[in-house]
Specification:
By secondary structure, the protein is mostly beta strands. Helices cover 7% and strands 29% of the residues. The strands form 2 sheets. Strands 1-6-3-4 form a 4-stranded antiparallel β-sheet, with no helix packed on it. A 3-stranded antiparallel β-sheet has the order 5-2-7, with no helix packed on it. Strand 3 and strand 4 form a beta hairpin. The N and C termini lie far apart (44 Å).
Length: 147
């Protein structure tokens, strides 16, 4: 039997650990990969030079910033405008995102991503989006629940 063990940050309390356990998804490979399969992994590294007008309908990176006076609360990154991709806050991945299609019952991403307070800083925060479909990132926002 396979066993997976996760080492959580010391700063993580029981509430954060429960949220992690709830959001964790594990998948089992149903068939062995054949001998003819070839693997290639691309790095999730943003470009060193930013194109102000990326090509439409092609994989692209987008970059934005937001300034916070107080970074002690968890937030939510609204990414429903993204076609399909991945979001990063201050260099750390906050998850995969995918547009919600009412015709499809499931998606392989989310339209809203949890951003733990530990990833945010008082001052300027960088938000990076990688979109496989090249959708313009209009409407991306970082929100906080009222306390």
């Amino acid at each position: 039997a396979n066993e997976f063990r996760f080492v959580l940050d010391d700063d993580m309390d029981d509430k954060d650990a429960a949220r992690f356990a709830k959001d964790l998804r594990m998948y089992e490979v149903a068939q062995p990969i054949g001998g003819s399969a070839q693997w290639a992994f691309a790095s999730w590294t943003p470009p060193s030079v930013w194109d102000s007008k990326p090509a439409k309908q092609q994989p692209s990176w987008s970059r934005g910033t937001c300034s916070l006076k107080d970074a002690r609360r968890d937030g939510w990154l609204e990414v429903s405008c993204v076609g399909k991709g991945r979001a990063f806050v201050n260099g750390r991945s906050v998850g995969g995102c995918a547009a919600r299609d009412p015709k499809v019952k499931t998606t392989d991403g989310a339209s809203e991503l949890f951003v733990p307070a530990q990833l945010l800083v008082a001052g300027v925060n960088e938000i990076l989006l990688f979109d496989e479909l090249g959708a313009p990132p209009k409407g991306v926002s970082l929100r906080f629940d009222p306390s």
